[in-house]
Amino acid sequence: MIIALLAVCMLATPVLGAVPALDWQTTYGVECTENAFAMVPLGGGKILFCGDTGKWAVNTHPGAKGQNDLWLAEVGDDGSEIWDYCYGGTDDDSGRSIAATADGGWIIAGYTDSNDLDVSGNHGGRDAWVVKLNPDRTIAWQQCLGGTESDVARYVIQTSDGGYLVTGVTASEELTGHNGWEDGFVAKLLPDGTPDWFYCYGGENIDGLLDVIETSGGGYLIRGYTGSDEIPGYHGFWDLWILKITPSGALDWERCYGGSDLDINNLYDRGSGLIECADGYLVLADTKSTDGDVTGVVQGDADIWIVKIGFDGTILGQATLGGEGYETIGTIRPVSGGGYILVATTTSSGGDVSGNHGDKDIWVVRLAADYSIVWQKCLGGSRDEYGYDVLEMTPGTFELVGVTQSDDGDVTGYVTPTGLILTDAWIVRLANDGGGGVPVPEFPGILIPGALLGVLGCTALLLRRRP
Question: For residue 362, how many C-alpha atoms fall within 13 Å in the half-sphere facing its CB?
Answer without folding.
Answer: 33
